Amino acid sequence: MQTKSNQTTELEPHAAVTPMPSADRLARIHTRLEELLERGDISPEAFAEYSTVAHELPTTANTSAHEHNTAPTQFVEADGIRFAYRRFGNPIGTPIVLLQHFMGNLDNYDPAVTEALAAGREVILTDNAGVGLSTGAAPETVAGMARDAASLIDALGLTHVDLFGFSMGGYVAQQVTVDRPELVRRVILVGTGPRGGEGMAQLDPDTAPLFGTIYDPQDLMWLPIFFSPSDASQAAGRRFLGRIRGRREDRDAPVSPATIAAHSTAARRWGAGAAGRFDYLREIHQPVLVINGSNDIVIPTVNSYILQQNLPNAELILFPDSNHGSHFQFSEQFSRSATDFLERSNV
Amino acid sequence: MQTKSNQTTELEPHAAVTPMPSADRLARIHTRLEELLERGDISPEAFAEYSTVAHELPTTANTSAHEHNTAPTQFVEADGIRFAYRRFGNPIGTPIVLLQHFMGNLDNYDPAVTEALAAGREVILTDNAGVGLSTGAAPETVAGMARDAASLIDALGLTHVDLFGFSMGGYVAQQVTVDRPELVRRVILVGTGPRGGEGMAQLDPDTAPLFGTIYDPQDLMWLPIFFSPSDASQAAGRRFLGRIRGRREDRDAPVSPATIAAHSTAARRWGAGAAGRFDYLREIHQPVLVINGSNDIVIPTVNSYILQQNLPNAELILFPDSNHGSHFQFSEQFSRSATDFLERSNV
Question: The pTM is what?
Answer without folding.
Answer: 0.84
